[in-house]
Amino acid sequence: MRFGLATTGGDAPGMNATIRAVVRTAVSKNIEIFGFKRGYAGILANEYDVLDARKVGGIMHLGGTFLKTSRAELMKSDEGISQASQILKKNRLDGLIIVGGDGSFKAALRIHNTSQIPVIGIPATIDNDLPGTDTTIGFDTAINTALGAIDKIRDTATSHERVFVVEVMGRNRGFLALEVGLASGAEIILIPEIGCSQEDVCAKLAESNRKGKKSGIIIMAEGSADCLNLKDIIEKKLSFEVRITRLGHMQRGGSPTAFSRILACKMGSASIDFLLNGRTKDMTAIQGREIVPVDLDYTCTTEKQIDKRVYEQALTLSI
Ligand code: F6P
Fold first, then answer.
1. Is 170 in the pocket of ligand 1 (CB under 6 A)?
2. N or C end of the chain, less CB within 10 A?
3. Domains in the chain: ranges and CATH
4. What is the structure's pLDDT at 306?
5. Ligand 1 centroid vs 101 CA: distance in angstroms?
6. Per-residue pLDDT averaged across 97-121, rounded?
7. Would strands 32-36 and 48-51 be described as parallel, antiparallel, or unpaired?
8. Distance between CA 88 and CA 43 in Å, rounded?
9. Cα 52 to ligand 1 centre (Å)
10. Nearest atom of ligand 1 to the alpha carbon of 249
């Protein structure tokens, strides 16, 4: 048998550990893996390398993806889906494993519907915005990376008695910001899923100041507000000096944490088992401690919900 493999969309720490797990599980079952370069762009260009156990050695601890990745706009069109389907069929692939996020999975599902080739999605994104899985490969690493930076910011915020607005990634969702906010003891968390006006932010800061806090950290999801505007308003209404830090793409890099690596090993292995067990369009999901299949139709059409209780807990703990 022969399966295709690609890492697609934004990279996430743990993608290399996933590639290693997929390839070594496949090799142990005499299955060939075509590793496509640069995500869907490599599939469209039919650019691949047949991977073996040695080629994926020494990569588990590295961030990024050694197969490279890209955002392939063409895959949003019928033309892209049809071209990719033809190329995969020409290569006589018995299955396709896509490591990535929601956009990548939508394209994989369309490829399956067009070509009937079985597809498995392995969730790897720092956004953790995929419904059906508790968490995604790379999410835990991104939280830790952001925390390392915010702990340092806290030192200078305290010394200068300033408020820092720290913008974290997450596209239009607040999963990363919420966990980072909880773990960093942020005074305020701004996420798109829970409304908080600039007046509310100022009122909360004034209240925490009344309670004796002379500095503060506002964790802001990139999809939630305009930080420049927020700085102006806080400085105008309150006596705080405000500084802004955008953590940006550093959150996507670095060596994966133990949790991200272990998840990558489990999901990478499961992807091969799912294909061999006749699964045709599933995501390798973690629910509790179990790796289970979740239909890609569900993942691609449902919106993952934020746990509002965690938001409330974070607020309570930062008084
Ligand atoms: O989806 C992962 C992510 O890092 C988002 O959090 C962010 O909005 C986006 O990708 C950035 O994309 P790019 O790397 O294309 O600028």
1. yes
2. C
3. 2-138+256-301 (3.40.50.450), 141-252 (3.40.50.460)
4. 97
5. 10
6. 98
7. antiparallel
8. 8
9. 30
10. 4
